[in-house]
Amino acid sequence: MTDFMQQRTLYIDTRRCMGCRACETVCKLENDLPAGPRFTMVTEVETGEGTEERLNFLPMPCQHCGDAPCVRACPTGALFKREDGIVLSEQERCIGCHECLWACPFGIPQFGSNGLMQKCTMCFNRIDEGGEPACAHNCPAEAILCDTVENVSRILRERYAKDANRMGGYADKLD
Amino acid sequence: METYNPIPWRKHENLDKYAWKKNVPVWIGGKKVIADRVVKTCCPHNCYDTCGELVYVKDEKVIKIEGDPEHPITRGHLCLKGFANVQKINSPDRVKYPLLRTGKRGEGKFKRITWDEALDWMVDKIRSIQAEYGPEAIIEYCYSGNREHMAKSVAGRLWNLMGASKLVGSFCLLSGVAGSVGTVGSQFTMDPEYWAENCETLFLVGRNCTATNPHIFPFLYKAKERGAKIVVVDPYATGVAGKADIHLRPRPGTDGAMALGMIHWILKQGLEDKEFIAEKTVGIEELRELVEPWTPEYTEEVTTIPKAQLIETAELLAKTETMFETGYGQQRYSNGHQVQQALACLAAVCGSFGKKSANYDCISGMAFPGITGFADGAAVSVPKRAKIPPARMINIAAIARAIHEAKEPPIRGVISYRGGLISQQPDVDYTIEAVKKLDMFVTIEQFMTDDTDYADLVLPGCHYLEQYGVHPSYWHNYNQILVPVVQPPYECVPDIEIFEELGRRLGYGRYFPKKRTGLDYCRMLIGKECDFDSMVSPNGPARNPEKWCPEVPYQSFDTPSGKFEFHSSVLEERGKKYPGHYDPLPRYYEPDESVAATPELAEKYPLNIISQHPSFRTHSQYYNLPWIREIEGPARVFMSRKDAKDRGIADGDRVRIFNDRGELENIVARVGIRLKPGVVEMSSGMWVKLGGSVNKLTKLVPAGPRDILAEDGILYDYNPLLDGNTGSYFNTLVEIRKMEDKKEAEQ
After folding, report:
1. Is B99-171+373-543 a domain of CATH 3.40.50.2300?
2. According to the model, what pLDDT value does residue A166 have?
3. Which residue spans within B276-421 are E strands per DSSP?
4. What is the pLDDT of residue A169?
5. Which of B26, B27, B204, B616 has the most A C-beta neighbours within 10 Å, making it the best mutation to test the interface with A?
6. Which chain A residue has the Cα nearest residue B309?
7. Which class is B15-89 in CATH?
8. CB of A156 within 8 Å of any CB in chain B?
9. Where is B403: in which H helix or E strand?
10. Integer Cα distance of B701 and B661 in angstroms
11. Is the peptide bond before B383 cis (omega within 30 degrees of 0)?
């Protein structure tokens, strides 16, 4: 069993995502995808009441789950998890049975015109060269992080520690 | 297979000279491809950000685009449209050769002709219109589809030589500019890193940053993480409002009233910046008198903003160092100039001018480089030694009216480029009737749009990545010259070369030397004012000089008094010359059409529809691309739960939206919290022929201060910075019903 904290993850800071959807087209371009398969999709969530009504956003790329249900569900072994945690599909072995879609809690598997499963690859080819996924690289809100679980957790804790706003900020000085 | 004719007069340059890098490996679809060159350019699509771009080219095709990481503001990030440019420029649906109309106007039937035939046709038409009606019977139509300024100047050179009518004005922001110039004087913006590091409150009005200014967010988050408060004013629960500590949601068109209410409270509590007001302003006593009735209670009554929220915000703005970042949404009402005038006064009362921690941004003068003098427009548009006859002006905010009403002479020919006349002007049906009256309607287009359907002649235009341009941002202060990254495909021709060749064939050959390139014209425009070469790929971007873009603007004011003017002397003077709402004080009045201004109409049409600029499009552009259509989905109208319930509408129902001007059918209702009861929203720019154009419902009533409708949009003197004009798209009343209700009624 691989060390969970060393698994790579795509973390999206929903406090920063502001719904511009640039991740959706940069992903299309990077993966040379036509309309049809969507490797990431920004969902819009309305919350709150009265003066607290807010529009929030949740981009949904593949979660590259620790114990990925799609990998377990795939009858041909087309889906597999790399040592670093990235879940990939091998189209040559895919038979288009949609078992992975049934298994996935997030509706991630996509099926293009050839009927075979495709999905977010975490841009592993860019990662293998020391880069980051196209969506993380481009995000105008700098909301997408791609790193090991351990590092993402550290970055988030550091951000939180530095975030003066959680203490209330200048407005507290008013009274 | 289709073949394309050579165009001997189309310029051909070796574009390798603009390569920032050559033979660059790049990933596409999981495969490594070697791009022949990577070129730096910028996006001219009329947005605050004017992103720096790196464009990858292989075999003279754009294969990939990335943000330019060397751009200090956009920092290597692009929006969704930036990437969709690859799909756009390579689209099989591009207009590939000249097309001459064969069917009726609006039918969309055309035949392919050659460039020679097209230009001969144009020359014949222009000459016959000129002979019958005079040179002023012809006018261009051009706006911000590609907002760079160089090609417009080159076209202006031709119009000047021809003695054509001059297109002036705006239909998106000059009302706000007039209100701002009237009080503040010349317009500047401060680099965002200063307020990100120093402000205590960020006050954003009428700006849906997600769609129109996404690169503000890292700066906004920087400020927020330091502890700054974010206040957003918008009737819609936008993405940026979701990040705000306080979200104020005025009834549409009442932001000016909100500002007066805040000023009232600040003055009453003695929270104003007394030192700033004493030293750097004039007219505070008149303002004090003006805001006297604007108690929190009365302001709540007009704006619907809860009194407590209004007071909390007013005190926050006055007690902390507040950065005012005002957008343009709040001024797309007939009272738009007053709104911005009032907001500027609010900023002055708070002392938010001239400081790194607290300043006021409306628009940078770089939005109008020819007016500020940064760009020497006349160097291009007024050729030396040519006799340029004086010509009447037509205001773009009332162009349909002018086409309908102009008599001496009438408008008989329109040459249109870089703008969607039919989809973007208010009151679509009225615009179409105007277009049908023309003897000549020529469009330079990349795709078959609403406009091309009504055109006599469609000329294959170029994507911005295929031509030169100058587009300084109106928000940040960095400049990158647009250079062609690829050769024009098919029989497409860069805009300036169309005007040059037309000019030659009209007998003005000596004014359009064949050796001059777009880069030469760009240099003629701004070369004297900046280190031009430092802005041309492989170089750039470079900051515009301090003279034009001071790092911390508004240390002083260049108004007649040399101070910030609560009582605007220039607006007062201008008002003595022209009809309109020239008020030296930011006196509030209701928008032209609203529940308060037109209660009888509101009985019939009780919903105020506003139309945002969405992330998906630059106005009507990009709407036809598969990537964009897939993300955006069908045309939607957002409404409150109450308004939906009152009409028996459920989320996802198909509805029709209508008023006396028009009707839209089969729009998907989205019910939720994004709007307060009484307000609905449908994004602008969807195409008329695809059934989702909100401008079928909007009214042609330009915002002030000048009342250009009184002059039918035909002007002989015009000051864009004081006369204003903006399409008041958002003061539109409608009613919404379920589609089934109509079917039942018909049965």
Report:
1. no
2. 61
3. 281-282, 322-326, 360-361, 393-395, 413-417
4. 47
5. B27
6. A51
7. alpha beta
8. no
9. helix B399-405
10. 13
11. no
DSSP-derived 3-state class of residue B552: coil
- Give CA–CA dist B431/B420, Å, rounded: 11
Stretch(es) of chain A classified as CATH 3.30.70.20: 65-119
Instruction: Give the one of B67, B615, B673 whose C-beta lies nearest to A53's C-beta.
Output: B673
Which chain A residues have a beta carbon less than 8 Å from that of B66? 138
B77 contacts A22? CB cut-off 8 A: yes
Q: Nearest-CA residue of chain A relative to B306?
A: A51
Q: Nearest CB to B227: which of A33, A138, A164?
A: A164
Token couple for B724: 């204003």
- Interval B154-189: pLDDT, tens: 999 999 999 999 999 999 999 999 999 999 999 999
Distance set, CA A156 to CA A59, A127, B219, B608 (Å)? 18, 21, 18, 42
Give the torsion through C-alpha atoms of A46, A50, A51, A56, to 10 deg.
-10
Q: What is the mean pLDDT of residues B683-702?
A: 96
SS3 category, B726 = coil
pLDDT-derived band of residue A165, with 50, 70 and 90 as boundaries?
low
Say whether B631 and A25 touch across the interface (CB within 8 A): yes
The topology (CATH level 3) of B599-746 is Barwin-like endoglucanases (2.40.40)
User: Which fold is adopted by the domain A65-119?
Assistant: Alpha-Beta Plaits (3.30.70)
Three-state DSSP state, B31 = strand
Cβ <8 Å between A170 and B309? no
In A21-60, the residues whose Cβ lies within 8 Å of chain B are 21-22, 24-26, 28-36, 38, 46-49, 51, 53-57
Angle at CA of residue B145, ends B682 and B504, nearest 5°: 150
| Residue among B62, B210, B679 with most chain A CBs within 10 A, to mutate | B210
Closest CA–CA distance from residue A55 to any residue of chain B (Å): 5
What is this model's ipTM? 0.95
Nearest to B83 among A26, A35, A171 (CB): A26
H, E, C per residue of chain A: CCCHHHCEEEEECCCCCCCCCHHHHHHHHHHCCCCCCCCCCEEEEEECCHHHCEEEEEECCCCCCCCCHHHHHCCCCCEEECCCCCEEECHHHCCCCCHHHHHCCCCCCEECCCCCEECCCCCHHHHHCCCCCHHHHHCCCCCEEEEEHHHHHHHHHHHHHHCHHHHCHHHHHCC
Cross-chain residue pair B210–A29, CB shorter than 8 Å: no
> CB of B219 within 8 A of CB of B192?
yes
Residue B613 sits at the chain A interface (C-beta within 8 Å):
no
Burial B461-489 (b: 16+ CB within 10 A, else e): bbbbbbbbbbbbbbbbbbbbbbbbbbbbb
Is A166 touching B (CB cutoff 8 A)? no
pLDDT tens figures, B61-118: 999 999 999 999 999 999 999 999 999 999 999 999 999 999 999 999 999 999 999 9
CB atoms within 10 A of CB B353: 23
Are the beta carbons of A57 and B29 separated by less than 8 Å?
no
What per-residue confidence (pLDDT) applies to A172?
46
A96 touches chain B (CB under 8 A): no
Domain ranges of chain B: 15-89, 99-171+373-543, 175-366+560-577, 599-746
Looking at domain B175-366+560-577, what is its CATH homologous superfamily?
Dimethylsulfoxide Reductase, domain 2 (3.40.228.10)
Give the minimum alpha-carbon distance from B311 to chain A in angstroms, rounded to a whole number: 13
**What is the pLDDT of chain B when averaged over all its residues?**
97
C-alpha dihedral over B425, B430, B436, B438, to 10 degrees?
A: -60
Query: Within the 176-215 window of chain B, which residues sit less than 8 Å (CB to CB) from chain A?
Result: 200-201, 209-211, 214-215
